Amino acid sequence: MRAWLRELIEGDTARARSFRYGLLAFDLATILYVVATSFIPPVPVLDYIDAMIGAFLLAEFGARMYATRELKRELLHPATLADVAAIASFIAPITGEGLGFLRVLRTLRLIHSPMLLKRLRADFDLFRRSEDVIVATTDMFVFVFAMTGLVYLSQHGINPGIRNYADSLYFTVTALTTTGFGDITPHDTLGRLLTVVIMVCGVTLFLRLAQALFRPAKVRFECPACALMRHDPDAVHCKACGVVLRIPDEGDG
Predict the structure, then answer these.
(1) Contacts from 166-172 at CB under 8 Å and sequence distance 24+?
(2) Other C-beta atoms within 10 Å of 67: how many?
């Protein structure tokens, strides 16, 4: 059983790739569900859906922990702790509000996984050509979504300007861009500290995204001499060691 689970989680077979893509799709669907239900008044059917999502996440979490080769390291990983909080909130909601949005940190961990990055490059030409932009955009999305969730969790019910995720998103983006319209403002110390984190970290992520968008594109090709991975698209020699490169192209230039 452990070997089979490791093959699904770590393997490079077609079944393992489908399994990991399926998990990524489920994570994204879970995130959308958390956002959508923030606009809906509490109804009993949502409790059942939350419980089913929590049970699935708990099963996946247990399988991952059973299959891991480094259990202690895995348990202490921030994304794992976020998984535990998200699972607990789906199975037994805390103070009436779920922490399911923390599942987005799992998406961040997946998108930075060397194995998934390798598969995305092999399977999708668009990702291969725009990897830096896609990864930087994903980082920005995860940060905005996580901060929006934290703002909603900490301010909903005590701040009349925060009624749903849309209000939280609006506040997060105005704080992140340092626009600060002032129509929604934090009313407590925790809210103000979150605002500081949003502004400081958000500017850094914006700069990284802008750099990925506007700097010249690089080709990923390992230099046979020094192993440098990034080169100009028309490079003939490696800029680090000078060896002749034979970068394959599609012959469309």
Answers:
(1) 166/39, 169/144, 172/144, 172/147, 172/148, 172/198
(2) 19
Residue that finishes a domain, picked among 92, 123, 154: 123
What DSSP letter does each residue of 156-196 carry, written as one string?
A: TTT-TT--SHHHHHHHHHHHHTT---SSS---SHHHHHHHH
User: Are residues 116 and 30 part of one domain?
Assistant: yes
Do 198 and 233 belong together in one domain? no
Nearest to 207 by CA among 181, 178, 231: 178
Domain CATH code at residue 55: 1.20.120
Up-side HSE of residue 195: CA atoms within 13 Å toward CB?
Answer: 18
Q: Domain limits at 20?
A: 1-123
* This prediction's pTM: 0.70
List beta partners, residue 94. 97
> Comparing C-alpha atoms, which of 87, 125, 131 is closest to residue 112?
131
Q: Is the domain of 5 the same as that of 101?
A: yes
Residues facing residue 220 across a β-bridge: 230
Structural domains of the chain, count = 3
Decide: 113 and 9 in contact? Cβ < 8 Å: no
Q: What is the pLDDT of residues 91-103, one digit of tens each?
A: 875 444 556 666 6
What pLDDT digit, counting tens, does each position of 39-62 carry? 777 778 888 888 888 889 889 889
For residues 66 and 168, membership in a common domain is answered with: no
